[in-house]
Design goal:
- This protein is an alpha+beta fold.
- It has one domain: Alpha-Beta Plaits (2-Layer Sandwich).
- The chain is built from 4 helices and 4 strands; from the N terminus they run E-H-E-H-E-H-H-E.
- It has a 4-stranded antiparallel sheet.
Amino acid sequence: MILLQIYFAVADEQASAFEAMFADAYAPAMEKQPGYLGFTLLRLFPAPVAQEIGGAETPFNYQMELRFDTEANRRLWAASDEHAVVWPMAQEMSSAVAWRGYDVVG
């Protein structure tokens, strides 16, 4: 299994729209893909809570975790017609985006 973490910097005024886009467009598009195993959308704790627990600073306030059976199938998703529609939506709502890929070993 592989895990792709995608980090987004989303303005506060776009937060609700970003979450709705993910639930209404992004997730349904992914769920039809070969090898798709699941996803998680995470929102960073509010700044006072993050500071209270000693959380590391980051410019990103959202993280998407995508799980696929293989990197090859994740790449098929990235090359799909559905991805070509929803990925620009996510990018347009973000001032910065970054990602990391992992092999799940445990």
